[in-house]
Design a protein that fits this description.
The protein has 295 residues and is of the alpha+beta class. Helices cover 23% and strands 56% of the residues. It has 4 helices and 12 strands; from the N terminus they run H-H-H-H-E-E-E-E-E-E-E-E-E-E-E-E. Strands 1-2-3-4-5-6-7-8-9-10-11-12 form a 12-stranded antiparallel beta barrel. Strand 6 and strand 7 form a beta hairpin. The longest helix is centred in the first third of the chain and has 25 residues. The chain is elongated, with a radius of gyration of 26 Å. It starts with a helix and ends with a strand.
């Protein structure tokens, strides 16, 4: 009788935590070993149907795995050196034609991001130049900096400062500053979507010597989707809405992995100015093909 009483807690424990079928257990182990959140979530989802009795146990193991991964990632962030958290990519594209027509076009961009536990910093530089028969037909430069303070797993406060120069759009230089709130609406290994909204201030020097300073509203969208291994799409868009002149900029890109850190990129960019100077069109578009190097 005494031996039965001692064994009773073990029997109750086994009744509460049934053994996971070997097939489900092996698939769960393989998914956790791969480090794929989506694969683990898929196994947990179908384990409920395949063996309802062990579904809770499968969920407990998956939850413990996610918690351990999160703690390990945060520990690495805390212990990392400054440069260890810096990532980015550089884009380079261009063309040269000779003969009946002589054209040259160059585009370059670099994006740098440092992501820590509470802070994220983003830097972006871009230059476009095009020449036809010795005459410059496009010349645009951009520099932008954005710090983010993450006060939640998804929500954050942002600041943004941007400089542009594009005389073919009618201005020699334009400075913009903004602050507001951001939210990571989608946050997974395969897909991300960041949304931002806040007030802004813009100061523009036009080529006709006029100067404008206006309060505006700023909104932005940053979307990325890994379609399959080595193939992904991105969509970036931003808008400054003001009384005098509103601006909308978008960039859609398809990236295909080539080898190592090298990828091929095909992109389409559009910039819209609601009230451009006289003689200027409202919309500029450009299609590019180039190489991207991750670092």
């Amino acid at each position: 009788m005494r031996a039965l009483l001692l064994a009773l807690p073990l029997l109750l424990a086994n009744a509460e935590d049934p053994t996971i079928p070997p097939t489900i257990k092996s698939m769960l182990d393989a998914a956790m070993q791969s480090g794929s959140e989506s694969d683990v979530a898929t196994i947990v989802k179908y384990a409920k149907t395949a063996d309802p009795a062990s579904a809770d146990q499968v969920m407990k193991i998956a939850a413990a795995w996610r918690s351990d991964r999160q703690q390990t990632a945060q520990r690495k962030l805390r212990e990392a050196d400054f440069l260890d958290l810096v990532k980015g990519h550089a884009e380079l594209g261009g063309y040269i034609s000779t003969g009946n027509t002589e054209n040259i076009g160059l585009s370059a961009a670099i994006e740098i991001k440092r992501e820590a536990i509470e802070w994220r910093h983003k830097l972006r530089f871009q230059a476009d130049y095009q020449e036809s028969l010795g005459v410059t037909t496009r010349e645009r430069y951009l520099a932008a900096y954005e710090p983010n303070w993450k006060f939640d797993d998804r929500a954050y406060l942002y600041g943004a400062a941007q400089f542009e120069s594009d005389r073919f759009s009618g201005f020699t230089d334009r400075f913009s500053i903004s602050t507001g709130a951001g939210y990571s609406a989608i946050k997974s290994q395969a897909m991300k979507l960041d949304l931002e909204l806040g007030p802004a201030f813009r100061h523009t020097n036009f080529i006709d010597q006029t100067v404008e300073s206006n309060v505006a509203a700023r909104g932005s969208l940053d979307f990325g989707w890994k379609l399959m291994r080595g193939l992904s799409v991105t969509q970036n868009a931003s808008a400054y809405v003001e009384k005098a002149n509103s601006t909308v900029s978008t960039k859609s890109a398809l990236l295909a992995k080539l080898i190592g850190p090298l990828s091929a990129q095909f992109s389409y960019s559009m910039q819209y100015e609601s009230t451009p100077p006289i003689g200027r069109k409202t919309t500029d578009t450009i299609s590019r093909a180039g190489l991207v190097i991750d670092f």
